[in-house]
Amino acid sequence: MNNLALHLSTNSIYPGEFIPLFSEEEIRNELNRSVKEDIVYPPVNMLELRDSFEIEVALPGIKREELLINCDDNILSVCVIHKEQGSQRAGNFQLHEFNYECFDRHIILPENVDAEFVNAEYKEGILHLRLPKTDQPSKKPHTRIVVY
Prior knowledge:
The chain has 148 residues and is mainly beta. The chain has one domain: Immunoglobulin-like (Sandwich), CATH 2.60.40.790. 7% of the residues lie in helices and 32% in strands.
C-alpha cells in the first residue's frame, strides 16, 4: 500500500475539513510587519499528567480558522492573525485588554512529548492542547496541528 498520498499537503487524515484563513508564509509576513512592543501574549497554563501534558491558552474573541499551530523539535508555536472587520461596538473603550490581533507564542516542550499525536480543541475562548508523552525522545519533524 502506498502511503505517500497521506503525506501530501492536500490530503488529510483528520475527519471534517479545517482550512486556516492564512498560510504559514502569510502569518510570518504579518508578524514581521507588526510592532513587537504592541503585541500582547496570552496567558498559558501547562499541566503534567501521568501520560500526557495539557496546555491551555486563553484566546478570547479568536476564531479557530485564525489559529495556526506548529511543533518544531520541542517548540510549540501558536500563531494568530485576527483582523477586526470594523468596530464591533460604538463608543470608546475605557479598558481594552484582550485584543490579540497578531502574535506568535512559543512554548518550550519537554523532550518526552510526542508531537505527532497532539490533540487541539478551541472552545469558549480557550485553546486546549493535549500532548501525549513518549518513552523514546526523538527528533521531531515540523508538525502542523489541526484545531477542532
